[in-house]
Specification:
With about 220 residues, the protein is α/β, with parallel strands linked by helices. It contains six helices and eleven strands. It folds into two domains: about 5-100 and about 175-190, Nucleotidyltransferase, domain 5; about 105-170. About 30% of the residues lie in helices and about 25% in strands. The strands form two sheets. Strands 6, 7, 8, 9, 10 and 11 form a six-stranded mixed β-sheet that branches. Strands 3-2-1-4-5 form a five-stranded mixed β-sheet, with helices on both faces.
């Protein structure tokens, strides 16, 4: 890794295009809220962020990307963009899950929680010895792991209130914005063995992806 790597991270797993740029040790962030149109909006937004700092895509040392869980089509958009940039630039693209970003720079144990709609949540337990596998829970029908009740870990993220009632735990707001957390996590992994990012889907898609959505490349 260079002394001060330049890394661009972005995420479209929800109703937004959000990104963070780390350059010369400085952080620049941007979030554009939008329910649709991320496929057309993302790349011009990233170009603008880079241009504002006098940079282009070829100046990047790496790319970070949110891989979900979240909106099926949104995840496809960002992962496809990251893999395309990585291939074209010959630079690594590092996938970061929404759940690990939620608990970035928080004490353990903690449970990252995200709303999966229809009374369901995405959740992942992060303990002192590392994380468990992420899962989707239907809070009306699926049992909550006993350890979550016994240890009372702090809950981080949207959808935590319903789980807190079952585990008698406290709910806290993520301490670090999503775009910044993805960028900082990705930065720590620039020298790891390269594995192309792939979508993290914990449930089937609600509908077929739109025809104008950029295709995703999967292994």
């Amino acid at each position: 890794m260079t002394a001060n790597p330049t890394l661009l991270a972005f995420d479209t797993s929800g109703p937004w295009c959000t990104a963070a740029l780390i350059h010369d040790g400085r952080l620049t962030v941007r979030t554009d809220d939008m329910a649709k149109g991320q496929a057309e909006h993302l790349m011009p937004m990233l170009q603008e962020m880079l241009a504002d700092q006098g940079l282009g895509f070829t100046d990047l040392d790496g790319i970070g990307v949110g891989v979900g869980p979240g909106n099926f089509t949104g995840i496809r958009i960002s992962v496809s963009a990251a893999r395309g940039l990585a291939l074209g630039l010959g630079k690594p693209a590092i996938g970061v899950s929404l759940l690990e970003a939620l608990v970035y720079d928080t004490a353990r144990p903690a449970i990252a929680v995200a709303d999966a709609r229809q009374g369901r949540i995405y959740a992942q337990y992060f303990g002192a010895n590392g994380p468990d596998d992420p899962m989707m829970l239907d809070l009306e029908s699926d049992p909550v792991p006993d350890a979550w009740i016994q240890e009372k870990p702090v809950l981080i993220g949207a959808g935590g209130d319903a789980l807190a009632k079952l585990t008698h735990s406290a709910v806290e707001t993520p301490p670090t914005p999503l775009n910044e957390a993805i960028a900082r996590i990705a930065l720590t992994r620039l020298d790891d063995p390269y594995v192309p990012p792939a979508p993290l889907y914990l449930r089937p898609a609600d509908a077929a992806p739109a025809r104008d959505t950029a295709p995703v490349i999967l292994d």
